[in-house]
Amino acid sequence: MSTHSPEQLRALYDRWSQLWRGDFSHAADILDPGFVVHQARPDGSDSEATTGPERLLPEIEQTMAAFGDVDLSVDLGPIVEGDLIAARWTLRATYTGGIPHATAPVGTKIAFSGHDLLRAADGRLCEYWTCTDILDGLTQLGAVSGPNSPSRP
Known about the structure:
Elements: H1 6-19, H2 27-30, E1 31-38, H3 53-66, E2 67-81, E3 84-95, E4 109-121, E5 124-132, H4 134-140
Parallel strand pairs: 1-5
Antiparallel strand pairs: 2-3, 3-4, 4-5
């Protein structure tokens, strides 16, 4: 059972969302030093091998390097139950380049969605489960082939 009110955990999620908008100024305040990401990685690497802010912040920086005009909207939630916080979000952005195999021109507008499930303890986020439809985003950029992707020459 959480020692924090639902309002406090919703405020914590708001600060989490700010990280994904590029504001890292409070990362050490909201991420536990042992922060763990549970995520299926496309490259097969272990998402739990590195913990803490140093696990998450490079991933956010990588996203920011490939996209400008990032707009992250929370579509549903955050929903709080005990020490868990859940939300569905949509990221809209402009492609700035650098994604391997992308055929879309720089300036392409994309949008993809995902779900976050976070666990909080002692006022910080300590675990993160994510399900992101990055395949949709990569398809929009022509970086993968599929029924909805641009045709390949």
